[in-house]
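A reminder from the course coordinator: this example appears on the midterm review sheet, so study it carefully.

Given structure:
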């Protein structure tokens, strides 16, 4: 385990604790408010903090999947997380706690501190609140505004600095995303043709179940990397997604293209649609069986 990503987070936390500019740390592309959260890591020595973080993530898997947690340890995004010390499983766990309360609004607001993950985890919730509970949407907006706005009092230019760094560091981000935008790696001129179907997929799926909405958001998102598919944990059985992720990793090594990881959200959508149809058919059979048999006239 190299802990490369975690090392960046730890040094950012150190910069915060020592009053230095977090954006002086190379390859740090997160919003400034999250830098203050990373100071928690820097309390401990780097290697100790890294192993505590890995242990915490394994505990997340155990908490949500109980005895089946070991199945997800072979999921490629999880393997990457354990090796590099990434944060996506933590944000996934926060999403599981979202409810129609102030606490749910707070968790949703915190997820925005990793925008590429928020683009996958939050749209279904935001649309649901817009349609059925606009007070929750207001709560989320107020808390999100506070989280992003208060650091402006400390550093007024941080948004411009962050946007500059992210735009400079993600020039090829769309072609590396686990979505239909990965086609741009092979056909760079397809951007105008890809954007419209991607937007349609993204929007239409948000009106489906949360699992389909998440897969659709991933399939239509122009941002993210292969490990962003961490968000798909639990949306389909491990027996489907784990082998498929291993095959996708192999194909990526052979082709130098991330398009194979786009098959993961497609698999989730197919599995969910098939399951829903089977459930509907089963409910129909049960309803027919429960209907009383009309009496025959003698």
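Designed residues:
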């Amino acid at each position: 385990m190299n802990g490369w990503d975690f090392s960046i987070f730890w040094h950012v936390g150190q910069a915060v604790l020592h009053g230095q500019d977090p954006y002086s740390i190379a390859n740090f592309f997160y919003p400034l408010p999250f830098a203050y959260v990373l100071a928690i890591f820097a309390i401990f020595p780097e290697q100790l903090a890294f192993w505590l973080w890995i242990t915490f993530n394994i505990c997340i898997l155990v908490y949500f999947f109980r005895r089946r947690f070991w199945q997800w340890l072979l999921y490629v995004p999880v393997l990457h997380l354990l090796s590099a010390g990434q944060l996506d499983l933590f944000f996934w766990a926060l999403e599981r706690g979202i409810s129609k309360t102030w606490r749910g609004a707070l968790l949703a607001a915190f997820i925005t501190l990793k925008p590429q993950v928020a683009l996958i985890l939050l749209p279904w919730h935001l649309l649901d609140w817009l349609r059925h509970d606009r007070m929750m949407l207001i709560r989320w907006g107020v808390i999100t505004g506070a989280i992003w706005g208060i650091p402006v009092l400390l550093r007024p230019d941080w948004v411009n600095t962050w946007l500059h760094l992210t735009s400079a560091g993600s020039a090829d981000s769309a072609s590396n995303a686990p979505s239909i935008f990965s086609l741009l790696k092979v056909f760079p001129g397809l951007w105008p043709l890809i954007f419209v179907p991607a937007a349609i997929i993204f929007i239409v799926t948000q009106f489906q179940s949360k699992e389909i909405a998440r897969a659709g958001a991933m399939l239509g998102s122009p941002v993210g990397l292969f490990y962003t598919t961490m968000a798909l944990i639990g949306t389909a059985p491990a027996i489907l997604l784990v082998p498929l992720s291993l095959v996708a990793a192999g194909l990526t090594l052979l082709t130098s293209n991330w398009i194979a990881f786009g098959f993961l959200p497609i698999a989730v959508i197919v599995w969910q649609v098939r399951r829903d149809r089977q459930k509907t058919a089963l409910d129909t059979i049960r309803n027919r069986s429960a209907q009383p048999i009309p009496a025959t006239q003698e």
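DSSP finds 16 helices and no strands in the chain. The chain has a mean pLDDT of 90.
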